Amino acid sequence: MWERKTKKAKWNGKVLHIQSTTLDGGKRLYVAEMPYRDDPHIKVMGAKSRSITIEAVFVGINSLVDANALIAELESKPEGKLEHPYLGELSLVFDSSSQKFTTKKGLVTLSLKFLRQGAPVVLARLDEKTPPELVKRVLDEIDKDLEKKITQASPEQIDSMKFDFTTVLNALRNIANRATLSSFKLARLHREIEDAFTAIEMISNAPSAYSAHFSAIINSLKGDSNSESSINKLVSTINPIAEFPHCNIHITFAVVLLSNEMATLSHVEIVDAQTLSTQSLSKMQSNINIIQMQLSARVNDVTKSATFESLALVDAVEALHANVNKQANKLTQYQQTLKTVEVVSARPLLCIAQSEECGFKALTRLNSIKHPLFVVGELQVGNV
Predict the structure, then answer these.
(1) Neighbour-count burial of 15, counting CB atoms closer than 10 A to its CB (0-12 exposed, 13-18 middle, 19+ buried)
(2) In the CATH scheme, what is the code of domain 339-381?
(3) Angle at 100 between CA 99 and CA 103, to 5 degrees
(4) Cβ atoms of residues 197 and 232 within 8 Å
(5) 2-116 has which fold?
(6) 16-74 per-position pLDDT tens digit
(7) CA atoms of 19 and 1, how far apart (whole Å)
(8) pLDDT digits over 353-371, tens only?
(9) Are 352 and 363 spatial neighbours (Cβ–Cβ below 8 Å)?
C-alpha cells in the first residue's frame, strides 16, 4: 500500500522510495546594516548553491538498519548521480540528512539534502604562463576596470587621465621617429599612434579603444634595436601621483613586452653563458631590476585603490610581477655559480682570460667591459 504513495529513484544505482522533493535556490546577499540608518546596504554576491531535498521512506523490520547504511554510504562517498523520476539524472553532492522513524509501524523517513554539482573549475598555473600571456590578462582586466572608473570619474579626472595618456603617446611618437624599422612598419606605427590620439578624445565613450591601439603600437615596436632607450623613455613618462593607475600600468606592460631580457629569459629554464650572447650579465640584471621596481609600484597602486570588483586586476598584476621575479631569479642562480676575481692593476682582457682559463667571449658577456685592453676591478668568471 505504501509503495503506491512513493516513486522510485536511484542513487548510484541503489533504489530509493521517495515521497517528496524540494528544490531550493536564490541569490547570495551581503547585507550591511549600518548604525543609525534604517535602510541596509545590500550587495548581490552571485547565485546560491542550488539544493535538492528528497524524503525517502524505509519500511519493514530492517528499515532503520537500511536507513543508517544509506547514510554511512553517503558520508563515505558524498558525490554521485541521482536518477529522479521527474528531474532526470542529476550530478549531486550529499550535504546533510535528517531521520524520523516510528517504531510501531517500522517506518523510517529519511530527509536527504544534496547540492547541485557545478562545472569543474580548472585553475591554470600562472607560473607556467609566459609574460605576454600574463600581460594580455592584465590588459583584459584593466579594460574592464577602466570602463567602470570612467563612468564614475568627474570631468576634471577624465581630463587628467587624458593628459597622462597624451604624454605617453608623445613619447611614443618621439621613439617612432628614431626607430630602426622598415619603412612599411614605420608607416604603420605612425598611423597607429595617430589613431591612439583620436581614441583618447573618445575615451569617455569607448575606453577600451585606446588600449587596443596602445597594444598595437607596442607590438609594432618589437624588434627595434633601440628597445633599451625606448624603455627608458617610457619609464620617464610614469606619473607617480596619477589619480588612476591605468596609464602607468599600460606603460609598465609595454616595458615588459619591449624588454629583450624578458624575451630571452622566458624561453630558457636555466641561464648559462650561451644565454648571455647579446649583453652582459650585469646589464641584464640592471634592466630586469627596473622592470621589477615598476611592477612593485604598480602592485601597490592597484592594491591601494582595490575594490571587490577590481580584485581580478590586482591578481593579474601580481601574477605578472611574480613571473618577472621568477625570470630574475634565473640570473641570480647563474650568478651564484660564478667566482669573482680582483684585478688590481689594468690588464688586457685576453691575458685575464688565459690566466683564469676561461673564454674571452664569456668574460665579455659576464662583465661590463669599458675597454678590453685596460681592465681593472672585480670580474665575474665562469667555466665555459
Answers:
(1) exposed
(2) 3.10.350.10
(3) 125
(4) no
(5) Elongation Factor Tu (Ef-tu); domain 3 (2.40.30)
(6) 999 999 999 888 888 888 888 888 888 888 888 889 999 999 888 888 888 899 999 99
(7) 13
(8) 777 667 666 666 666 666 6
(9) yes
